Amino acid sequence: MTEVDAGLWTTVADVAAALCLLAGAFLTFAAGVGVVRFPSLLARMHVVTKPQVLGLVLLLLALGLRVRSWSAVALLLLVVVFQLATAPVAAHLVSRAGFRTGKVDETGLHPNEMGEVPDDDPPASATSGPRAP
Amino acid sequence: MTVVVVVAAVLVAVAALLALVRIERGPSMLDRALGLDLLTAGLVGAIAIEAAWSRRTETVPILVAMSLVGFVGSVVLSRFAAREPGSEPGSDAHASGEVPPEDRIDGQGGRQ
Per the CB < 8 Å rule, is B22 touching A96? Predict the structure, then answer.
């Protein structure tokens, strides 16, 4: 796919790719350990969101340093942008669903920003409902 | 390079196995959604390691598709999350999102 000449920069790129590969695999492994050992839903959400995304970005960086073609690097950049855009959205949806269905222990949350929501009516109907005279 | 690739592949495989443990053990459906997210990420990482080992670029579109599929799965599972009996402490704090027991789609639908 790409012609490989045995030069200095090829060696430097391969060594950097190896380091990124090890770091990314270690971060993914740390995410796996955390998702088993952490006690609550929000802690697991944290460990699935942050170290896993960083580990995946490092693995894709290693792949981009190893294959040195611009089309593959463009696709890998697309994957990185997708991950960085969708991981906060997925974590927010998971934590909000956990709040709504009562799976979060709220005594440990000091700025509890979802505690003021009234229990019986959803906020969508409270804002857009018909205002009866 | 071979030693580095083997070590990285073993680490990612162990992470995927731990995600499977969380999927099997998870007390709620959202924990299983998180485990599936991590499993998809481990699969993407394994494909990336294999492509970096053999310098191939044919498998790179699979990475794009897998990252989008993982996001859609996590969103759908958290969208249809339901109340479950006695899962975590503080589970009586919110009464919104109440679902009748026959409409639950979680693994332990209204058994206890």
Answer: no
pLDDT of A103 reads 75
Average of pLDDT values for B6-34? 91
The answer on pLDDT for B55 being more than 80 is yes
B16, B42, B52 member nearest A17 (Cβ): B52
Nearest to B30 among A66, A83, A94 (CB): A94
- Residue (of A28, A25, A14) closest to B55 by Cα position: A14
The verdict on residue B39 lying in a domain is yes
Name the residue in chain A with its Cα closest to that of B26.
A36
Number of structural domains (chain B) is: 1
Total beta-carbon pairs less than 8 A apart between chain A and chain B: 200
Contact flag B94-A99 (C-beta cutoff 8 Å)? yes
Is A132 in a helix, a strand, or coil?
Answer: coil
Domain coverage including residue B23: 2-82
Domain range for A34 is 8-104
The answer as to whether A122 is a domain residue is: no
Q: What was the ipTM of the complex prediction?
A: 0.75
Q: How many domains does chain A have?
A: 1
* HEC secondary structure over B13-63: HHHHHHHHHHHHHCCCHHHHHHHHHHHHHHHHHHHHHHHHHHCCCCCHHHH
Instruction: Give yes or no for B46 touching A (CB within 8 A).
Output: no
CA-nearest residue of chain B to A24? B8
> Does B95 reside within a domain?
no
Does B91 fall in a domain?
no
